[in-house]
Amino acid sequence: VKNKIWKVFYFICLTILFSFDRCFGNVTELRGKIEKEKYDSSMRLEKIFKENLSDNFTYTIVPRGLIITIDNSLLFEPKSAVLLDSAEKILSELGNTIKNLNKNCVIEGNTLIFDDSMQNMLLTIERSQNIAEFLTKNCGIDSLSIRSLGFGNINPPENNIKIFERIDIVILNY
């Protein structure tokens, strides 16, 4: 009787093990398909932005979507969160493209202007909020689809980006 019980137990364990392996194989395959779709979606987004915008932007594809990077000197007065008059044109063309895509986005401010980390953090928060406010008021982007964050000096640039004084606008893939 003990021998039969062990054989049944062994058979059940093998069945579970093979089912488990097959299940995780499908999950891994599915995850790969999802990542490829996200990458393809980001490539399409990059193409749309490059076709519709001027050359003031740098693009980086990351797992969460497409990062559009703008040098702070194109948007703000030095050491200030006040938008330059020339920033209106840049932000308007960017905002109109974002609105037509109907995607969520995150505006991330980054700076290393002050020696004090807290000053950097506060400045980047105010800058990203000002951009979000501009995009909602002037371009008609729904305020629920846009978020603003300030990172101060704690968010280093992506590999191909050389500017630390920047605004990253992340067009989300989800």
Describe the structure.
With about 170 residues, this protein is α+β, with helices and mostly antiparallel strands. Helix content is about 50%, strand content about 15%. The protein is built from 3 helices and 5 strands; from the N terminus they run αββαβαββ. It has helices at about 1-50, 85-100, 115-140, and strands at about 60, 65-70, 105-110, 145-150, 165-170. The chain has a 5-stranded mixed beta sheet with strand order 1-2-5-3-4. A hairpin with a 2-residue loop joins strand 1 and strand 2. Helix 2 crosses helix 3. The radius of gyration is 23 Å and the shape is elongated. The model has no long low-confidence stretch (mean pLDDT about 80).
Features:
5 strands, 5-stranded mixed beta sheet, 174 residues
Helix/strand layout:
Elements: H1 2-52, E1 58-62, E2 65-71, H2 87-101, E3 105-110, H3 117-139, E4 146-150, E5 166-172
Parallel strand pairs: 3-4
Antiparallel strand pairs: 1-2, 2-5, 3-5
Helix pairs in contact: 2-3
Calculate the mean pLDDT score and round it. 82
Order of helices and strands: HEEHEHEE
How many strand elements?
A: 5
Major sheet strand order: 1-2-5-3-4
Q: Which word captures the global form?
A: elongated
Unreliable sequence segments: none
Strand content: 15-25%
Fraction of helical residues: 40-55%
Question: Gyration radius, to the nearest Å?
Answer: 23 Å
Q: Report the span from N to C terminus.
A: 56 Å
What structural class do you assign from the helix and strand content? alpha+beta
Largest sheet: 5 strands, mixed
Number of helices: 3
